[in-house]
Amino acid sequence: MMSICEVKNKKRNMAAGALLAVILYLLLFYGSSEGSVRVSFLGGAREVGGSCQMVDTGRSLFLVDCGVFGNAGRDVLPEEPGALSFVLLTHAHTDHCGLLPDLFEAGFSGKVYCTPATARLVPVVLRMSRSFSRDKVSKESFDRALGSIVPVEFDDELIVDEVRIVFRRAGHLLGAAFMEIDIQTGIDSFRIVFSGDVGSGGSVLLAGLEQCHQADWVIIESTYGGKVRDPLPKDPFERHSVFINAVGEALRRGGDVLIPAFTMGRTQEITAALHLGLHHGAIPSGTLIYSDSPTAKKITTIYRESRMEFSKYILDLFGGRLLSPPGLREVKSATSMKVHSRSHEPSIFISSSGDMNYANSPRHLMRMFDREENLLCLVGWQSPGSVGRRLARGETPVLVRHREGRKLEKDWINPAIEILSVSSFSSHADQDQLVSWLAGIVGIDRVFLVHGEMDNAEPLQGRIRDELGLNVEIPRPGESFECDSSELVRKKTVIENAKE
User: Fold this and answer.
1) Rounded to an integer, what distance in angstroms lies between the CA atom of residue 347 and that of residue 137?
2) DSSP label at 320?
């Protein structure tokens, strides 16, 4: 039997061992890189396009988005793609997902996680991009990229490498999400929220942006951070009444209507808005609506099969007829072009591209520009130097490049067609909306502005600092920021003590 003295010594040794274990545990997380989180802003920093942020938890390395910038030579990938554990996608626009095949070509071999609708849209978008881009990626890498995509439902909890991810609705595009990412850093959890592209509330179809409630760091877009729009009416018909009424007036005076629209998102929103106009009698019944993009048709099918993301208002109004207004004709371009050359009732033509620089919309323009009763509705962002941008500015003459058969034609035109620019379809939040969303989030230690030129990011930075009192950074391309978890714990403790 042990003596009383031996028992006391054993207890002291056990207590000392337990204390040592606690000290080693704290040293492990607060005295090493695993007690901190580093975020590197590889793309989408002080510019729109090429969104790509890399997160290093000390135990896992992953990307949030992997997008193209749009101009050759500006795209950025991590230095060691093979070291990445996984990729998260906020949505299916190419400036957020377009470099995925290149990432696999460079050595990445992990999974790509996104919402179910995004998982269906990304392959369509990447195949379209591959068909007309300077793609240098092998078919094997391209196929591996598509095969790596794993759908995750909104609000479900995904845990990968001890990182917890939840996708929430962003209201920007079908499937678009912001992400709440919880990273265990020692004895505490650190939450980073990546906004992706934040919806404006202007969608006819989609349920609105969800409110995020808690975060330590927020990485948020600033595309229109320097702009404040007039508040949008809640009723979708009223919201888009300028567009709908202009279309109706043009048709009644005997004109055709051309609506250049990008194939994903805008074509579907325009179709739904026209359906509203028909339903309310603002657009003449019996009007034929020609949509002549094969890719848009594929994407519209995905939209029709994703009803769970639509607003209750639009589902109650149209039910199974959603995105199938009377008079809609989803046709090949050869069919829609022939309409112009024959006698026909005033009609609507929805055609890509949205800025009229390529595809079928410049071909329609060449058949419509010389009649003043016709209407051209510019419903989206017009890229610098594009035909759409020049027309919106009232320039004349305007050079239009259009492909007729296999021949590329170039013609200068003096447009007689009425030209209307409409802003109600913008899918990006403005300054008021971004600040309001941030104001609803508690616990923010730091905000980072991305996906915006400096003339939009800087005004947003100033307002967030002035009104919300937050620390706001505008990262430079390639810049990294690190959060020391022990410092964050101390800040949280001070805040909680102050509350008490």
Assistant:
1) 41
2) G
Q: Which amino acid is at 484?
A: D
Specify whether the CB–CB gap between 255 and 316 falls below 8 A: no
Q: What is the mean pLDDT of residues 117-136?
A: 85
pTM: 0.89
- Distances 101 to 10, 42, 437, 491 between C-alpha atoms, Å: 61, 17, 33, 41
For residues 487 and 365, the model is more confident at 365
Domains of the chain are: 37-229+426-499 (3.60.15.10), 239-419 (3.40.50.10890)
- pLDDT at 21 > cutoff 50: no
Of 209, 339, 199, the residue nearest 269 (C-alpha): 199
Q: Running DSSP on this structure, what letter comes out for residue 446? A: E
- Examine the pLDDT at 18 and tell me if it is beyond 60: no
Tokens of 157: 């909890």
Instruction: Using the Cα atoms of residue 433, residue 436, residue 440 and residue 442 in order, give the sign of their dihedral.
Output: positive
Q: Would you call 420 exposed, middle or buried from its count of C-beta atoms within 10 A (0-12, 13-18, 19+)?
A: middle
Residue 212 pLDDT more than 80? yes
